[in-house]
Every structure is written in structure tokens, then in C-alpha cells.
Write a structure and sequence with these properties.
This protein is mainly α and 189 residues long. The protein has one domain. The chain contains six helices and no strands. α1 packs antiparallel against α6. The longest helix has 28 residues.
Length: 189
Amino acid sequence: MAQSALPTPAVPASFGAALRGLYLVRSGFALVWAILLFAIGSGPLLVPLLVIYPLFDAAAVLWQMRRAEAGGSERTAERVNIGVSIVVAVALGIAAGISPASALVVWGIWAIGAGVPQLLAAVRRRRLGGQVPQMLSGGISVLAGASFLLQGLHGSSALTSVGGYAVLGGIFYLVSALRLRPAGGGRAA
């Protein structure tokens, strides 16, 4: 993978520890959410479950921004991620009421829209270590989003496929948490 020309802001040691904790929480949430999705499959709890995921994502990114002491340009990608996630929560609530295929289309658009800022933020934080999985996760999110979008446009009703997406995201967050470099520590990718 080519090195980015983007500047890497100085990051306080406490942010690295906070980021590790956040990644662990996000990993656990994604895995529990996917288990619930697979267990529910369909029914009245499906819509709230679908809406909760992007709202949790928005809250996690907002928490991360408030913990970071870096300024300006790094926060642009994160602000975009928060905005997209909130809009998607509303859109998922509406789309899931229309049809599972409509919900897949919205989920696909969101995965693409959230994957790009995730990738950009991880590239900017690469000196912390543990960001390669986040870069991969952002890139895979874009590809998976395109797949969900196409499935939805072709009328698929397999919403449980987004559960696999959440599991993979949870694994990437777990790996990132484990690979984050301790304050003043050695190199981790």
C-alpha cells in the first residue's frame, strides 16, 4: 500500500489508550449486534436493530472526536461519518418499513459513505499503530457497500448479510485494539 502524503498529527498517549478502549467496545457491540440480527432474522425488532447500528457508529465517532486533541482537517472525515450515520439511521427506519431490499440499498450507501472517512482517519492515525486493520476495514466497507447496494437494487431480502459485515467490522476493531502501540512503545502496523 502506498504511503499517504497526508500529515500525521501528534497524538497524546492518552488518546491511544482511549482509542484502544473504544475499539474494544465497538468490536463487542458489532459482534453482539450481529448475533441479535441472526437470531431475529425478521419481525418487529428488525427495524430498531437496523437503526441502532448507525446511531451507535455516530456516537462512537463523536466520542472519539471529543477525546482527540488533534484539530481541523482530521475531524472533517469524522464529522462526515457522524452526519452520514445519523441520516442513515433515519433512512433505514423508513426503508426497512418499505422493504428489505430498500433497507439493503440504504445500508449499502451507508457502508460506502462511512468506509471512505474511516479509511482516511486511519491513514492519518497510522503512527499510533493498529491502523492497518482500520484501513482495510474502510476499504472493505466500500466494497461490501457496493455489494449491498446491488443486492438491494436486484430485490434481495437477505438482510442477515449485513450481519456478516458487522462481524467482520467487529473483528477488525478487535485486531486494531490489540495492535495499537502503547505510549512510547514499539512499532505496530
